[in-house]
Every structure is written in structure tokens, then in C-alpha cells.
Design a protein that fits this description.
Blueprint (H helix, E strand, L loop, with lengths): L2 H17 L2 E2 H10 L10 H15 L2 E5 L4 E5 L3 H20 L18 H13 L3 E5 L8 E14 L2 E8 L4 E6 L3 E6 L12 H6 L12 E8 H9 L7 E4 L3 E8 L3 H9 L4 E5 L1 H16 L3
Antiparallel strand pairs: 1-3, 2-3, 4-5, 4-8, 5-6, 6-7, 9-11, 9-12, 10-11
Helix pairs in contact: 1-4, 8-9
Length: 297
């Protein structure tokens, strides 16, 4: 696909989303002012072809209101919308960065462990319900674990790493694996069925990061300065985030399970965040701080 064509798809999606609902006439008017039109109108057949391609690539449905003749985007449920937004943002970023070779020495990117080698295989296995067999090299052990067989239940990206969570066939337990620590990945021929009682959305919704437990979630309250509160408003810590604003500080409320990932995240903010509730989390954070200080004694 040409970069110019992808850019046109993204422009159409962004324009319709920005207006909420828009007629073909208004869309065409804006199209002619865009850098993609060369001053020419957007033919009806071309627009319909673009609609079909957008649906296929991004799972975004551009619908038409028969009463007003306005086009709008059918967003689907919140989880589907978040996945679609991630795909769209990734495509938009790829499209932008593909045109910067002349200034590449002025752009600095993070070094991200690559999952490209096996991501497509795991996605295929997840879609078609085939077990995945691999060797795993965790950071916590010297020797790798060989011949791990997992029935994938879902994929998650966290801190720019891809993880697959599924049933470890040998242990009979749902576990999570980082794709960049997997080797010799093979997709088995047989198929499996996910336990009907397993709900991926419920499994992850009260957790921060990729450490999943079945412990009861807690009401987590943290106190921040007014400056730090702005960062949390722009990039919420979790989807359950609620803010209580005071004159010189804010209280943020969450529903979360208490995990090492959550503790590490709170510690990463240093003195800008203080845990108010629950007492168990305060103990986990203060214990981690004391252990860190012990390294310097």
C-alpha cells in the first residue's frame, strides 16, 4: 500500500471523527482543501472504495444516517474502540515517520525489544485457536524452559513490550509470557477451546501491567501535587481513574489489584505521589523504599 493512500484513509477517519457527523458535501469541501486532493473533488466511487478499505484495515465502520445523509463512525464497544484507536495511531505514526529520512539524525527513538519475529504467529494461533510451543528465557532464571505449550487467550502490550496470556498446558494454569523472551516458536496443528467461564476483559480490568492475580481489587487512593495531577489527567494510570480536586493537591481514586507492577509504577513517580489507601499498598511501597535505601548503607 502506498504511504499516500494510507494517509488519505487516516485523513478521512480523523475528519469524520472531528465533526462527529458530516455530509458528503462538507467532506468533499474539506477534501478539496486538503493536501491529498490536488484541487479535485473526491469521486463517490473512490469514497466508497476508501470506506471499504478503512473497514478492512482498521475495523472502522463509516455509516450513513439515512435521515440526515450524514456520515459518522460506528465506534462499537469501548474495548474495540481502544484497539482500533491503537491501530490507527500506529498507522498514522508509521506514515509520518516514513517521510523523515532526511532528518533522521534529529529524531531519537526508544530502543524497544522486538516482537516482530513471533507476533504474527501468535496472533494467527490466537485467531485460529492453535496451541503455541516455544522455548522461554525469563530474566529470573539462568536456564531456559523448553517445550512450553500455551493455549493463547489474549495479547497485551505494556511498556512497549508484547505479552501473550494463556493456559500453560503442562501446569494447567493461566500464565503470561513476553514475546521478546520466546524462542523457536511453533504453532501446533491441533485446536483448543477456551473455558467458557474465562473472560479476558474481566481478567485484566482491575490490574495494572501484566501481573495478573485473582486477589480481590482494592480502592486505591493516591495524593499528588497540582502539577503532577496534570500529567495523570493527560495520561491516566488506569481506566478506573477518578479525580478529586482540592486547592493545592488532588486525590486520584482507582479500583486495582495490588501487584508488583503497580508498586513499581508508583515508585517511579518519586515524591510527586503519596499512597493514601489502602494500608496494604502503603506497606508494599514503604517496604520497597526501605529495601532500596538499604543498598546504600
Amino acid at each position: 500500500m502506498s504511504r499516500n493512500l494510507l494517509a488519505r484513509y487516516i485523513w478521512i477517519i480523523d475528519t469524520i471523527r472531528r465533526y462527529g457527523a458530516i455530509t458528503r458535501e462538507k467532506l468533499n469541501e474539506l477534501w478539496m482543501q486538503s493536501p491529498y486532493s490536488d484541487g479535485a473533488a473526491l469521486p463517490r466511487r473512490t469514497f466508497y472504495n476508501y470506506r471499504n478499505a478503512i473497514e478492512e484495515l482498521f475495523n472502522i465502520n463509516i455509516e450513513c444516517n439515512s435521515a440526515t445523509y450524514e456520515y459518522y463512525i460506528d465506534s462499537g464497544d469501548s474495548h474495540q474502540e481502544s484497539v482500533t484507536d491503537w491501530l490507527l495511531n500506529s498507522a498514522a505514526m508509521s506514515n509520518v515517520l516514513s517521510n523523515v529520512s532526511d532528518i533522521s539524525d534529529s529524531i531519537f527513538l526508544e530502543d524497544v525489544p522486538s516482537a516482530r519475529l513471533y507476533l504474527s504467529q501468535v496472533i494467527s494461533a490466537l485467531r485460529e485457536r492453535h496451541p503455541v510451543r516455544f522455548t522461554y528465557r525469563p530474566y529470573t532464571r539462568v536456564n531456559p524452559t523448553r517445550d512450553v505449550v500455551v493455549e493463547p487467550h489474549f495479547l497485551k502490550i505494556f511498556r512497549q513490550r508484547w505479552y501473550v496470556t494463556g493456559l500453560n498446558v503442562r501446569d494447567g494454569v493461566v500464565k503470561t509470557y513476553a514475546l521478546d523472551r520466546m524462542e523457536d516458536v511453533k504453532v501446533d496443528a491441533e485446536t483448543y477451546t477456551v473455558d467458557p467461564a474465562f473472560d479476558a476483559e474481566s481478567f485484566v480490568k482491575d490490574s495494572f501491567g501484566i501481573v495478573f492475580t485473582q486477589a480481590e481489587p482494592h480502592e486505591v487512593v493516591i495524593r499528588t501535587s497540582t502539577r503532577q495531577a496534570k500529567y495523570l489527567r493527560a495520561l491516566p494510570l488506569h481506566t478506573s481513574q477518578q479525580e478529586e480536586i482540592h486547592d493545592d493537591y488532588s486525590l486520584f481514586h482507582y479500583r486495582l489489584r495490588l501487584t508488583p507492577d503497580l508498586v513499581q509504577e508508583l515508585l517511579s513517580h518519586g515524591p510527586d505521589i503519596k499512597v493514601v489507601e489502602p494500608p496494604e499498598l502503603r506497606v508494599m511501597v514503604t517496604t520497597a523504599l526501605r529495601e532500596a535505601l538499604d543498598q546504600y548503607e
